Structures are given as C-alpha cells and as structure tokens.
Amino acid sequence: MTSESPTPTDAADSAAGPPPECPAHALGPGGVHRLYGPGAADLRSLYETLREQHGPVAPVLLHDDVPMWVVLGHAENLQLVRSPTQFSRDSRIWTPLRDGAVKPDHPLMPHIAWQPICSHAEGDEHKRLRGAVNGAMTTIDFRSLRRHINRYSQMLVNRFCEEGEADLVGEFADHLPMAVMCELLGMAREYDDRIVHAARDMLKGTETAIASNQYIVDALGRLAAERRARPGEDLASYLITHPAGLTDEEVREHLRVVLIAAYEATANLLANALRMVLTDRRFRAKLNGGQLTVPEAVEQSLWDEPPFSTVFAYFAKQDTELGGQRIRRGDGLLFAPAPGNVDPRVRPDLTEGMQGNRSHLSFGGGPHECPGQDIGRAIADVGVDALLLRLPDVELACPAEELRWTESISSRHLVELPVVFEPREQQDVFQKPSLHALPRQRSVWEISTGDGRPSVPGSAAQPRPPVPVEPALPPEPVARGGAWQRLMRWWRGD
Ligand code: HEM
C-alpha cells in the first residue's frame, strides 16, 4: 500500500506558497514541511511531527524548496541503504538536478555535486574505490593507534590542566580527531591549531570557508605528491599503491573525504560522549553505583546523538515503494540516523539505555557502511578515558540546560563544554610504556562525581594564553610494518 500524501515531485509542481523568507511559514509549496528556515530551528521535534503526519517516510523541502524524502523509520533506513538495486548514491540521476531546479549555488552543493569517491560510486566502481580504502584501513595496527590517541590526549590535556578550567569542545574534542587523522594519513607535521581552525571554519561555511578549504586541499596535495614519489607506511601511501590504481584526483578526493568526514563525525562523537559522561542521569546513576564503562557511554551517545544526523543522499533508480510511500524514479531520499535511532518501534522508551545493542544507524549500513567506525570508536573511547584518568574530578561548569549546539541538516555540533577541575601539573607524554600506560579497550571506568553543580559558569569560555606544549609527535607511521619495527615502536612507546 502506498500513501496519497504529496510526493517530493508533486510538491515542486504545486502552485507557489508563501515566500520562503517569511518566518511565519514553516510550510512550502503543497503544504510540505521545509527542512530549513525558521520552521526547522528544532529538527528533532520537526522529525517527530513528520513521523506523526506521514509515518516512516515523509516528503520535505530542502533550501530553494527542492523536494526530498526524509526516511524516519529505523527499518526503512536500513532497507534504503541495503537495497543497492533500488537506491543509488549517485546524485546525477536526481530529477531536480537533471531538470535544473537545483542551482549551482545551492547551499547543499558540496554534498550534492558528484565526485570520484567511493561515497558516490556504485557497483564495480564502488568495489574498486572501496577496495582501496578498505585495503588501506586493514594496514592499521590498532594497538599503535591507541597509543597515539593516548599521547595526543595527554598533550592536549597538558595545554589546560594547570588552569583548573577548560572548554572540552574547543580545547579537546575539536583537536584530538584531527591530530589522530593527520597521524594516520601520514601528515603528522601538518597538525596544529591552524589546520583545526581551517577544518572548523570550512564546516561552518563562513566567508573564509573557501580559503580554509584551500589550506586543507594544499596540505593533502603536498602529502599525495610526497607519497607518490616516496611511499611510506601510512594510509595515504597504501591508497596510492593499492592495486586498484587510483588516479591522482581519486587519491586527493579520498584523502579529503577521509580527513574531513572522519574529523567532523569523530569530533562530534567525542564531544557528545564527554557531555553524556558529565551530565546524563543514566550514567550518573551508574557512576554513583561505582561503575561506568566509557565504551558504553560512547555507544549510547551513538544512539542518542548520531554524529551525522542525516546523510545526503540516496536516489531511486526506479519507481518503487518505501515505508508506504510511492517513490518515483529520480527522487532523492535522506538517509537519517537521527530520527531513525529514536524510532518508537525500536525504542518505545528513550530513557532506557541501549547497553549491548549496537544496531543504531550512526555508521550507515549496506555497501556504503562506514569503513572507519573502529577508528572513530577508538578515538572516542581512548580520548574520554585518558581525559577522565588525568582529571578525575572534572565537572561541568554550567547547568546542562545552558549548553548550546549549532545545527544543520547534516549534523549537530556542541558549541562549548565548559568544565572545572582541580589544577594539576603537566605530565610527560613521552613516558615509556608500562603495564598500565594505556586504558584498555572496553575497560571499566570508575569515577566519583558527587552531585557537583557548576561553580564557575562560563569561565572556561575565556580566551587562554598559549601554553607551551611538547613538540608534535614525530610523523611515524601507525600502519603495520614488520614484526621488528612493531616491537621497536612498542618499546619506544610510539
Ligand atoms: C564517529 C565517527 C564516524 C561516523 C559516525 C561515521 C559515519 C559514517 C556514515 C553515516 C557514513 C555513510 C554510510 C552510508 O552512506 O550508508 C560513512 C561513510 C564513510 N566513512 Fe565514516 N564515520 C566516522 C568515522 C570515520 C573515519 C574515522 C573514517 C576514516 C578513517 C571514515 C571514513 C568513511 C568513508 C571513506 C565513508 C564512505 C564509504 C562508502 O561510501 O563506501 N569514517 N561514515
């Protein structure tokens, strides 16, 4: 059975409604909800309204009132990503793009424009590109990776531990994934405050976004040229030398996808997991009982706050049906972990923890399922663990209700996470490895928080004078080498 609610194509064909700039109107032509503008300030509640009105798949409008479906149901999202014969990620078949309704200056163009990357490819081409990405990922030695994550965490904590206050978004969560990704890619030397600023600026889409994008593209271009000439043991080299034979353009574009998408998603995950550990009653209750595993907090955060709220997009290769809606060939559909993860059919009670259940949609599914999820999880697990070990008395410096987010269709980013703690000395980040040097994967975390409420609201937002830090870690590869090299790296504590 298919519903008679207006399809995205019908909505575009309808007579013009109120002007899009009018704040009083959340509805566009055909009475279809806009996913942008004043009516979409709270996307979570908008998704629930849409679920009530249309069921698991709803028609919506993107900027310029471009028609789209948003998939709200958990099962329907899985069906979307697992049906490559019906739905493709190649935007070139999208009707509004083909008929010119999507203009070149559309704000979502960076997501829409087709690129020679695995995310947009399908069939044999997807297998070839994804094969190179998977091949490069399998060279990663996770033991060594976790050491690097721990080292960079220590280095970042050293920058603020003597102050007794910090903003864990701006001073920790926004930095750690970039440091680790630069290390993994083989460009540890490029990691500094400037590249973090460039990535954030680019994602915010400010006036300087183009220059920031260029800064990152230049860094990746240098890396690709260096590794083409002299391959090493890093992700960039393995991508370049993979038998799939990626062209220079394909290498550059994949480095960019890996750096930026991985960075943004992991920074969001880390900030959300830290917020959850510091504020969530479910975890506080467990903490008061004495135990909370950090990986559980990370996994719960993946359910409640998917780092990508939606992924743009899948496109129907033929007329079909999804969630009771008639989908026409060329229609676009947003894969949407945010509403999918809170589908009442899989989570009737959102206050119930999801411990032990990893079937959330945050890493996608089907042929395009995220190949970097273990890296994202490792950064969040080790980063949160390392921070809590260094600052066991850390607590939020403002009421949880005062925390703010910036939100777009694709993601939700915590603006600040101000915390206070007892000032502590810096720690040597080059300590030799010892039995307990590293938090173990899936370790149990014990912390005593008391019922402490913030005592210094907003204090962490003050600009901090630069604190001298250790020199950046030498750009040694974390990819797997020979047994001897691995032993030496372990011995040196790399
Ligand atoms: C918390 C961290 C991360 C999250 C939440 C995340 C999420 C996602 C999602 C939702 C997709 C799209 C799946 C789909 O279209 O069905 C994706 C694809 C992808 N991710 Fe991640 N990701 C994360 C970290 C990473 C990392 C660390 C890397 C690389 C080191 C990475 C590399 C990729 C690539 C290359 C794709 C495209 C795969 C394809 O189209 O075949 N991601 N990710």
UniProtKB/TrEMBL annotation:
Renumbered to this chain, region (Disordered) spans 1-30, 447-480
Listed Pro residues bias regions: 463-477
**Family of this protein:** Belongs to the cytochrome P450 family.
Recorded protein name is Cytochrome P450
